[in-house]
Structure formats: C-alpha cells, structure tokens
Design a protein that fits this description.
- By secondary structure, the protein is of the alpha/beta class.
- It contains 8 helices and 5 strands.
- Strands 3-2-1-4-5 form a 5-stranded parallel sheet, with helices on both faces.
- The two termini are 23 Å apart.
- 34% of the residues are buried.
C-alpha cells in the first residue's frame, strides 16, 4: 500500500526570502532543499513579489547584494523559479500591528499554511493564528 505524501504550503515573509536568497543564512538550507524538491509548496501574491523588488532597491540592501555578487534580477529570478503566485487573500479577522505584514497573515490563513517570519508583530500573533490553521516560526523545521 502506497502512502500519500502531503505537501505543506508555506508563506515566507520578505526577511526570510532575503535570508534564503541573499544572506545565505545558516538556518535556510533545509528550507531551500524542501522548496527545490517540492516537499513544500511556497505561495505568494503579486504584492509580496512587488515588496521584495522594492526592498532589493533599499540603500542598505544594495551594498549587500554587491557583497554577495548578486543583482536584484537574480534574486527575483530565484524567487520566481520556486514560488507559486496566487490571488491576494481576503483580510482575515485578525489584524497585524504592522500593516505591511497583513498580506502574509491573510495569505497564510486563507491557505492554512506555515508562515515563516522574523517580524515581531507577526510572531506576536502566533497563538491566535493557530485558530486559522496557521503555524508560525522563524526557521523551517522539517518534521
């Protein structure tokens, strides 16, 4: 009898994406491998991609890209290769103190996804997000 593998859906905030594709954070190799092998289904909306593109042009990020010999286009290309763009999710009945992070919460709730973030405003909602089927964390744990 064959067991069916369940692919978890994941939402990554912009800081996690930077850790993954720019800073090569030591906490991200397992996440990258899970995305590349299809063990995780990474979803994002177009406004999330737009935010990443905007952040990559920030004056404090541009020198980091140069240090790692990366361009914004390369980072966006890696993003595009691994993510599935989905429709913007409706607002969930939970409001984040940081309005810029609401889109991540809404999407994770709409898809009952794992939400990885380092944002304190998002993480402060972890317990309340469980009621919407959302698991939160700062690092991907392959369990």
């Amino acid at each position: 009898m064959q067991t069916e593998t369940v692919v978890r859906t994941i939402v990554l905030d912009t800081n996690i994406v930077l850790d993954l594709f720019v800073f090569n954070d030591p906490a991200t190799p397992a996440l990258l491998q899970a995305l590349q092998t299809g063990a995780l289904r990474w979803i994002a909306s177009q406004p999330m991609r737009d935010e990443l593109e905007r952040v990559l042009a920030y004056t404090h990020i541009v020198p980091r890209l140069a240090y790692y010999e990366l361009s914004a286009e390369q980072v966006l290309s890696r993003f595009d290769a691994l993510v599935q763009i989905v429709a913007v999710a409706p607002k969930v009945q939970l409001t984040c103190k940081d309005a810029d992070d609401q889109k991540f919460i809404d999407l994770a709730a709409a898809h009952q996804a794992v939400l990885l973030s380092k944002d304190h405003a998002v993480l402060a909602l972890a317990k309340r997000l469980r009621a919407f089927g959302v698991q939160t964390g700062t690092v991907f744990a392959n369990d």
